Amino acid sequence: MKIFKVSSLTVVCLLLGIIIAMQYRSVKVNNTLAVYEQQRVNDLIMELLREQETNEQLTHRIEELQKDLEFYRNDSKSDAETIEKLKEEILRLEIIAGLKTVKGRGVIVTIEGIGNAPVDDDNILAVLNELRAADVQALAVNDERIIATSEVRRSGGYMMVNGRRLLPPYVIKAIADPDNLEGSLKIMEGVVDMLKYYNIKVDVKKEENVIIPAVRTDGTVLRYDMLEPVE
Fold first, then answer.
1. What's the predicted TM-score (pTM) here?
2. Per-residue exposure over 200-229, b if at least 16 CB sit within 10 Å of its own CB, e if not
């Protein structure tokens, strides 16, 4: 009888030890994820502010160059080389500003919830921010081009991007070095591991020919009618 009591006490102690260890691990994981998410949000805010300023400057510069191009076209003394250089510069800036459809090597990331697990805007933003940190050159979510003024927010069962309702699965296209992009997402305890914890499946595929459409120019995404350049 005494041996039975000792054995029972030992089993109880072992079970308590396991439960305490599991709770400690759960708390530790939750704290780590909370710190990670907050840092990513802070990084994203700073990155968006920098990109918005850059995009506004690019837009004004494109307008200036287009005026110069029109002037040189109407000037009979202008040579073809000057006009061609202006065209090339305008095209380069339009590509950077997201005004042209582009293609290149990169990754395609598919995000969807497992079972009834919802995908929040924070989840999408976490992936976008990680790709930005890997020096991505162009981004799109479900073929909506992502620029500095793009909003990504959840509204009911939809994800709103550039004023449009998107349904899951959410497909993020990114152009840059595929190995760097994949590595930044799949790093241990990185964004992919974090989303798995919340029952969100993330599939990352490297592609040799990723096509990303231009941003829409219907006034819903690019808005700068109240901006004036500072001389």
1. 0.67
2. bebebeeeeebebebbeeeeebbeeeeeee
